[in-house]
Amino acid sequence: MRAICPGSFDPVTHGHLDVIARAAHLxxxxxxxxxxxxxxxxxFTVEERVAMLTEATADMPGVRIGLxxxxxxxxxxxEGVDVIVKGLRFAGDFEFExxxxxxxHALSGxxxxxxxxxxxxxxxxxxxxxxxxxxxxDVSDFVPDAVAxxxxxxxxxxxxxxxxxxxxxx
Length: 170
Ligand code: PNS
What we know:
five-stranded parallel β-sheet, 6 helices, globular, binds 4'-phosphopantetheine, alpha/beta
């Protein structure tokens, strides 16, 4: 079966990778689909996010990266995806994920499977990583090397430019 792990991955964290790796054990193939149509203010460009995801999943057999425009269910239909996989950290995730899974099922009949994330990463979110990174904190325990290196380079560039420069790369 072919599964999909959709998200913004801005940036990919150990929490995402935990869910992707576990999905890769459950399914023959996993597409990690980067959504491009969110109204979010991204820290990293699409190209950077794809590069970081590609590096971080390089040792995971059966995993490939995809780019998604428009509706997730249309992408799933075009790519022959059988099931959507989402990670759940805590109850707050559940409410929104259930709503999306119900809409996706109503639109196309596709099923969503929710995997509880490892407790080790339950406190992580890309939003918090971006916040800590912008303010000069060390996030290397929470993200793969491919991400940590880029964040350090960004922080060094900001230091050279003077000040926290929190808006420089948003
Ligand atoms: O990491 P994120 O930002 O929570 O990922 C959100 C994403 C990309 C999974 C979600 O926005 C999505 O599925 N976008 C595709 C557009 C779509 O189908 N929206 C309706 C969902 S019910």
